[in-house]
Amino acid sequence: MISSLSLFGLNISFSSYTEFLDHFLHLARSRKSIGVAFMNSHMIYESHHSTEFNHLLNKIDIICPDGVPLLYSMRILGKAKSERIAGNDMILSLLSKANSEKLKVFFYGSTEDVLGKIKFRMEREFPIVSTGYLSPPFGRIDEEELDRHAKEINVFESNIVLVGLGCPKQEIWIAKMLGKINAPMFGVGGAFLLFAGIDSRAPKWIRNWGLEWFYRLIHEPQRLFKRYLITNTYFCFLFMKELIRKM
Asked: Where do the structural domains in the chain lie, given as residue ranges?
């Protein structure tokens, strides 16, 4: 059973990985319009520095605990135990199940080049899955264009919509599309690049120790150093603030 708790101004869901996957598949079969986000320190930072983003994020139905620091915070501050629900893992589980159940999957986001690599891998590894692809404009997408995109996804009769626009853009997009797209929408961010074979992921033992961020930092120091310094420090501040409040 999936439960939730209020932490850092957000409603975060928790349960086992299997429970989440089973629930997502039920939603996919029924083509229910819901939003799913995968929460880490960066997303928490963004939600505390934008009232609009915080409001839209709280409209999303299921916020999964992705980051390991968040998992520990949930256990310490909310007495809530959950397995890590990472978007990078869930995308593979969903595609595997979609392949066995002949579900339709729509990839929304990234560039034509990345989507082309994803299409090639899908045809090779998940040949039973019917797939749709759309690379939206890089800049702001107006309401008229959003409506056209929603129509295209619905005409395809998608069971699962994977959104790879990056945080916070993908969560904002999902919140705006609730009730417009007839399928569960998953904000999986960098999972597109991993699935396409452009990025690489940390070994499992590093992920188990909660050091995936350090692995990524080593590989992309110029892009990630400032981001991790700011977001991780801010997350520690929020954790201590909440811990003191509960004492």
From this structure: 3-195
Q: Which amino acid is at 29?
A: R
In three-state secondary structure terms, 157 is: coil
Enumerate the β-bridge partners of residue 3.
14
C-beta separation of 223 from 229 below 8 A? no
- CA-CA-CA-CA torsion for 201, 44, 81, 77, nearest 10 degrees? 140
Query: How many CB atoms neighbour CB 100 within 10 A?
Result: 11
Residue 60: left (phi > 0), alpha (psi -120 to 50), or beta?
beta
Please give the DSSP secondary-structure letter assigned to residue 139: S
Query: Strands 10-14, 3-7: parallel, antiparallel or unpaired by DSSP?
Result: antiparallel
pTM of this structure: 0.93
Residue 237 Cα distances to 2, 234, 241, angstroms: 28, 5, 6
pLDDT tens digits along 48-73: 999 999 999 999 999 999 988 899 99
What Cα–Cα distance (Å) separates residue 172 from each residue in 1, 17, 35, 50, 91? Answer: 27, 25, 10, 12, 20
How far is Cα 82 from Cα 69, in angstroms, rounded to an integer?
A: 12
